[in-house]
Specification:
Elements lengths: L7 H13 L6 H7 L4 H12 L3 H18 L4 H7 L5 H12 L3 H7 L7
Helix pairs in contact: 1-2, 2-3, 5-6
Length: 115
């Protein structure tokens, strides 16, 4: 039987991701925070959270990006602010997570698009 929330071993890693999503986050860092080997951490994380650590990190970044976009921050600035390499990388991940481009997201939310 799986616990309903991630075990305490993942708490520090999850908190680290939430606090440092806009920086490069390494799997080895997260594993060390959880006192697990890299492979064990990846396995436990996926079992407990339902996503790989990288997909979880991307989700955190995309949720923050949505907030910034709705606040009127241009997509080119948002990409850097939330930790993506460039606007193209950001747009690909945004579409994968949201099913639409950042500009389509803004249009659906009733906002004018800005580059």
């Amino acid at each position: 039987m799986m616990p309903s929330k991630p075990p305490a071993a993942l708490d520090d890693a999850l908190a680290f991701i939430e606090a440092h999503f806009d920086e490069p986050v390494r799997l080895a860092q997260l594993a060390e925070l959880s006192a697990l080997s890299v492979s064990r951490f990846a396995t436990v994380f996926r079992q407990q959270v339902g996503l790989s650590p990288y997909r979880y990190l991307c989700g955190v970044r995309i949720r923050r990006a949505q907030t910034l976009l709705l606040a009127g921050v241009p997509g080119s600035v948002v990409a850097a602010e939330v930790g993506f390499f460039d606007q193209s990388h950001f747009a690909r991940h945004f579409k994968r997570f949201c099913g639409m481009t950042p500009s389509s997201f803004l249009q659906s939310a009733g906002h004018a698009t800005r580059g």
